[in-house]
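Input.
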Amino acid sequence: MNMISRQLLFALLLVLLYTWGCNKEEIYTYGVNDVAVEQPGAVKPNVKSDLEVISIAHTDLFGTVISPNDLTDLATSYQAFGDKRLIIDMIILNFLNEPGVEIPSDADMRGDIEKFVQEGYNRFFVRQPTAFEEWFISDIIRNDTGITPELVYYAFMTSNEYRYY
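Output.
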């Protein structure tokens, strides 16, 4: 074979490989419908005002309505600072440290962790936890002896979901 025939054969091979290798892939379409997945109890479109958060937090922790004088004092403190979210968190933290707050003991929490988590969701979010939420928080409590009921309540009450109804 001479040089020209080798080049022609090589060119022909390249053209065949190019045409054979450059086919469009088929696009497969499956008949799958989009599904919106939502948790029925967690869809809360209305945000609480900051004074509502303070008032509801007091009721959730003490089982009584906050007095008008106490709410006025807290509202004055609240309005005096620029970072409103920080002040709400500090008010909740203060509530958790006051005498008379209704919080289970550490022994009660660890005695039945799942019940504690379910009651926390009912108390603060007015719904049942999902299986994952219940497992996740129960697992944290079970694996960390430094977690106290006050810390769990603080986490519930400073979450974004607590600010909605």
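The longest helix spans residues 3-21.
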